[in-house]
Amino acid sequence: IEDNAFYGCKSLTKINIPESVVNIGIYAFGDCVSLTSIVIPSSVTSLGTGVFRGCESLRSITLSENITKINDSTFYGCKSLQTITIPNNVVEIDRSAFAYSGITTVNFNENSKLTTLGSNVFEYCNKLTNIKLPSCITEVPYRAFYNAKNLVSVSLPEGVTSIGQEAFYNCYML
């Protein structure tokens, strides 16, 4: 699916992506404000930057186990998205991937290969109350949880060696 393919399609509520799709381009579904759910088939190996940015009604998403990176701003502003399970093969979640979203629960499996979180990854995620980061994480980056005002519990793995500037800034409940 090419870059901006469905960008701004305000009435699009659901889409079935065929198994023949391998890549979903930059902002492919950006600002599809009525999109409520999507299943990314196992054939998809990459998601472009901001692919679901501004999809305010997106409540449910199933990601392909073959995705290795969640790019910059992938779920930025997805206010209705509450729960997501990060596939085991994801090694990086880039900056602002979930910023300003309605995320309440982020699930990482025991075998998660996630090693890198980008800056501002959960910035202004005001509905996020607790999170347990997977064991491969060694750094909590700059503004990772900036203004996540209802965050009450963070479980950091033993291997964390660095917590970036303003990582938990204005997390009043911690």
Low-confidence stretches: none
CA radius of gyration: 15 Å
Percent strand: 15-25%
Helix/strand structural class: mainly beta
Overall pLDDT confidence:
97
What separation lies between the terminal Cα atoms? 41 Å
Q: Strands across the major sheet, in which order? A: 1-3-5
What is the number of beta strands?
A: 14
Q: Shape, please?
A: globular
Structure description:
The protein has 174 residues and is mainly β. The chain is 0% helix and 21% strand. The protein has strands spanning 14-16, 23-24, 37-39, 46-47, 60-62, 69-70, 83-86, 92-93, 105-108, 116-117, 130-132, 139-140, 153-155, 162-163. The strands form six sheets. Strands 1-3-5 form a three-stranded parallel sheet, with no helix packed on it. The model has no long low-confidence stretch (mean pLDDT 97).
Write the SSE topology.
Blueprint: E1 14-16, E2 23-24, E3 37-39, E4 46-47, E5 60-62, E6 69-70, E7 83-86, E8 92-93, E9 105-108, E10 116-117, E11 130-132, E12 139-140, E13 153-155, E14 162-163
Parallel strand pairs: 1-3, 2-4, 3-5, 6-8, 7-9, 8-10, 11-13, 12-14
What are its keywords?
174 residues, three-stranded parallel sheet, 14 strands, 0% helix
Task: Give a quick summary of the entry.
This protein is an all-beta fold and 174 residues long. 0% of the residues lie in helices and 21% in strands.
